[in-house]
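Module 6 notes. Inverse folding takes a fixed backbone as the condition and produces residue identities as the prediction. Think of it as a translation problem where the source language is geometry and the target language is the twenty amino acids. Below is one complete input and output pair. Work through it position by position during the lab.
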């Protein structure tokens, strides 16, 4: 089986179809790993959801912050404007089926055979791989339960901004969710910054990319993630960043991850290609 990790799609369905054609994807023998944020802002979020769902076990995904935003809007926990790219998704006749499928996706995946983990944004430096898997399941259990709407109503917020094993209730679940779907920078104590979104070098003095914290307990496991379009594709510190900003005029990236030497494929944003060039 060939495994490809694909960066944030965010409704860029046409580019995704070009990308899977480029890698000669065969759902009978290959598997796609989506790092989350299948939806929002791009033109074809609905098509993305339907297509990925239709692939069954030939594609797996983790939840990103935009996917959770769609779930919250469907549950009535977040208001969506008619101008939002998610508005038409919520009007689809099969939205209930799609939401039921989406809310059963995990925050984190780990493939023991390949020894790769996948999460949308990042992990707290205090978490070992085993810790992270266990904490992700806490959120997943609630999302898959009859109480999932209560979670979505209490999901939003920047506090607490640091992991503490003594956290309980919504504060605990919110902190887990924020690390796995929103974090970019934190300090050595694991205090998250949600206001700094630029590439490394633009952050305040005490903040570091989450994966560069020297005390990070998960650093022995390769972690595939997305979320950070200004970071782009990198392969260092035992992490693989895959969000190359297709939505923002960049590219959509797939990384063949089951080989010792990673193979990277990219499809340039369609809108960028269609901009007339001045000669």
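Target side of the pair, the amino acids:
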């Amino acid at each position: 089986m060939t495994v490809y990790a694909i960066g944030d799609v965010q409704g860029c369905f046409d580019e995704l179809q070009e990308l899977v054609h480029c890698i000669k994807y065969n759902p009978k023998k290959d598997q796609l790993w989506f790092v989350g944020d299948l939806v929002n802002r791009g033109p074809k979020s609905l098509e993305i959801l339907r297509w990925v769902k239709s692939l069954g076990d030939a594609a797996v995904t983790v939840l990103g912050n935009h996917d959770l935003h769609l779930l919250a809007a469907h549950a009535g926990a977040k208001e969506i404007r008619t101008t939002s790219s998610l508005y038409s998704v919520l009007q689809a006749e099969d939205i209930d089926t799609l939401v039921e499928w989406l809310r059963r996706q995990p925050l984190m995946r780990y493939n023991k055979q390949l020894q790769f983990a996948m999460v949308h944004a990042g992990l707290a430096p205090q978490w070992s791989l085993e810790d992270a898997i266990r904490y992700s399941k806490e959120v997943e259990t609630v999302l898959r339960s009859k109480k999932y709407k209560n979670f979505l109503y209490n999901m939003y917020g920047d506090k607490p901004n640091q992991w503490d094993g003594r956290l309980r209730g919504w504060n605990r679940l919110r902190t887990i969710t924020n690390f796995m779907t929103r974090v970019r920078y934190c300090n050595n104590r694991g205090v998250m910054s949600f206001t700094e979104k630029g590439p490394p070098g633009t952050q305040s003095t005490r903040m570091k990319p989450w994966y560069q914290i020297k005390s990070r307990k998960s650093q022995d496991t390769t972690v595939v993630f997305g979320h950070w379009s200004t970071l782009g594709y990198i392969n260092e510190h035992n992490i693989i960043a895959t969000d190359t900003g297709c939505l923002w005029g960049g590219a959509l990236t797939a990384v063949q991850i089951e080989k010792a030497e990673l193979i990277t494929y990219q499809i340039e944003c369609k809108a960028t290609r269609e901009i007339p060039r001045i000669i």
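Reference fact for the lab report: The chain has one domain: 2-273.
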